Amino acid sequence: MFIDAKVIVTKVTWRKDELYYINCTATPPLVNFVIGSNTYTLDNKQMVIPHGEESVVGAQNATVKCFWGVFPFDFGGFGPSWIIGDPFIRQYCSTYDVVNKRIGFSAANGA
């Protein structure tokens, strides 16, 4: 069973296009992900993602044209999963070490 995004951010709206919409001026709480023994915090400004030209703060429809950047995903039997995608990639660089079979993350410049 997924932890519903509404538990984390109470002002999101689930729509038929399978996105959680949020007010573009909202300030959601910080989100922490633990991978191995490391905790990665996603800055709340990374979590509110503009969705089209009308998402500019101050635009007439700004309250409905941003979406929350983390999505629940049912990956067939592997338990609850989240797609952290763009917010994580903008804030952390990924390094893949194929020889030693490991992945590393470091803070991105300007993040």
From TrEMBL:
The keyword Metal-binding does not apply. GO terms for biological process: proteolysis. InterPro entries: Aspartic_peptidase_A1 (IPR001461), PEPTIDASE_A1 (IPR033121), Peptidase_aspartic_dom_sf (IPR021109). Keywords: Disulfide bond. Disulfide bonds join 24-66. GO terms for molecular function: aspartic-type endopeptidase activity. Gene3D superfamilies: Acid Proteases. Pfam families: Asp (PF00026). Residues 1-106 form the Peptidase A1 domain. The keyword Disulfide bond applies. It comes from the Eukaryota. GO terms for cellular component: lysosome. PANTHER family: BETA-SITE APP-CLEAVING ENZYME, ISOFORM A-RELATED, PEPTIDASE A1 DOMAIN-CONTAINING PROTEIN. Belongs to the peptidase A1 family. This is Peptidase A1 domain-containing protein. It comes from Acrobeloides nanus.
